[in-house]
Amino acid sequence: MKYDLAIVGCGSVGAAAGYYAALSGLKVLMLDSHTPPHRHGSHHGDTRIIRHAYGEGEKYVPLVLRAQELWNKLEEVSAVQLFHRSGVLNIGPSSSEFMRNAENSASQFGLTVEKMDAEQLQKRWPEWSVPDGYIGLLEPNAGYLKAELAVGILNEKAAEAGAELHFNCQVDAITPEDNGVKITTSEGEFSASRVAVTAGTWVKALLPELPINPVRKVFSWYQADGRYSENNKFPAFTVETPEGDQFYGFPYNNDGLKLGKHNGGQPITAPEQRRPFGSNTQDGSEVFGFLRQFLPGVGVCLHGEVCTYDVSPDEDFILDSLPHSPQISVVTGLSGHGFKFATVLGEIIALQAAGQPVPFDLSPFKISRF
Ligand SMILES: Cc1cc2nc3c(=O)[nH]c(=O)nc-3n(C[C@H](O)[C@H](O)[C@H](O)COP(=O)(O)OP(=O)(O)OC[C@H]3O[C@@H](n4cnc5c(N)ncnc54)[C@H](O)[C@@H]3O)c2cc1C
Description:
This is N-methyl-L-tryptophan oxidase. It comes from Obesumbacterium proteus ATCC 12841. It is an enzyme of class 1 (oxidoreductase). Its cofactor is FAD. 22% of the residues lie in helices and 32% in strands. With 370 residues, it is α+β, with helices and mostly antiparallel strands. It has two domains: 2-44 and 148-211 and 315-369, FAD/NAD(P)-binding domain (3-Layer(bba) Sandwich); 88-140 and 213-311, D-Amino Acid Oxidase, Chain A, domain 2, CATH 3.30.9.10. α1 (12-23) runs parallel beside α5. The longest helix is centred in the first third of the chain and has 18 residues, at 61-78. The chain is globular and about 65 Å long. Bound molecules: flavin-adenine dinucleotide. The site of flavin-adenine dinucleotide has 40 residues, from α1, β3, β13 and β18.
């Protein structure tokens, strides 16, 4: 049997691609070496921020706005809350490029944001201590997504829509053929007219020519009381420090705060190098300086996790077909900010597989820029 579309990797983006492609009536095969959601990829740890006023550049805004619509619709069809409108507070020096981009994209796309200076910010949330010359940009309609829950639901909905799911099935090779692609797996060979490679961090095991660097990252939960909770309207946040480091965090019930450092991490070349939280001396302590300076009331590290980023040279996404094999498309280089886009990236894969036009400018995301 020949499938219209085979999806290699059914974590965040692949699960969405399978769902939208099956919904559109395509014959879809979904392959994953694990059973998503799981802790071996990039989607675990409960939550992911979704921001619309985008510090990484305005080119992402039309994509994220469509992604948000699709997340909302997925909530409706599944009757499960996946999006928490906690608001997202971006904090940084007024001269920061990230802050400027976020502000510009808000004004260009008419997004609601509230800009405040350091004094106004601290008055509203006395938990924060921010340097003079800093600004806050609160996006009240943004928030966070329940990531593992969403991946599970997308795969479930894909199966209900008729996709064939083969999990615990490792893909070993993808070979272009005259009228499609051969996919060699631990359970034998499959053929499809098109393949979407959404394999996350280890995509280079299948497509070694891609300019992707896997990076080990940690994130952890810290002791915090109800003041830092969503109940108290404490928003999810991103912070750029005076040294140029970037931290992010989530309100978490009434008894914790989840935090991570976006830049840095350990470049790795094999899955075994993704050693557990605590294996590196700085794992538990990399946010200490940030906490002391910005959130001095937060307490000790409760526990942590490891994860990986698939980092492209410019930290922008790669959304393209392979130059010599247009029947193989790839979504990679999500560089630690891709979860929020999973729905729209899945929809794009489905449209391409159905031969439909894609209503977004994908030219900034081409492989040929490298
Ligand atoms: C700590 C951390 C915090 C983050 N925070 C945010 C955030 O706040 N907001 C945000 O938008 N993004 C965030 N991200 C980024 C986001 O989570 C990722 O960009 C996104 O989850 C990547 O999706 P993916 O589908 O590419 O990979 P994954 O979800 O990891 O899926 C890849 C799948 O491919 C499978 N696979 C791999 N190789 C093979 C093979 N050979 N054969 C079969 N299957 C294979 C894997 O098993 C896996 O299921 C964060 C990432 C991390 C690590």
